[in-house]
Design goal:
By secondary structure, this protein is mainly alpha-helical. It contains 4 helices and 2 strands, in the order H-H-H-H-E-E. Strand 1 and strand 2 form a beta hairpin.
Amino acid sequence: MKFTLSVIAAITVLASMVSAQNPAACTLCLQKALGTLPACVGTLPTAAGEAVTPAYAACLCSSLTGNWIDSCNGDSDCGSSIALFKANYPANIEAAGLNCNGTPSFNPPA
């Protein structure tokens, strides 16, 4: 089964690696920023364990450019170390199971 929790967990873990100072604020900023992408509006999960839909996978595929991450570089969010997160985001989210070839899907590794 595919679970959105895996995606959220991946973003949370990656965000906490960036911002040891305030990982909760960093994670919240990243989640809000992701939700502003045109392909993501209305597709973000609302409950833990909710299945990843093709629309949400398409949202994640649209996020690979990383430009949305720039809005979280403030000291009260993720700080300047967000650049490392941004540089590694595409490879990390794809390693977590995102597939953007053909119909976007999210299949966490077993």
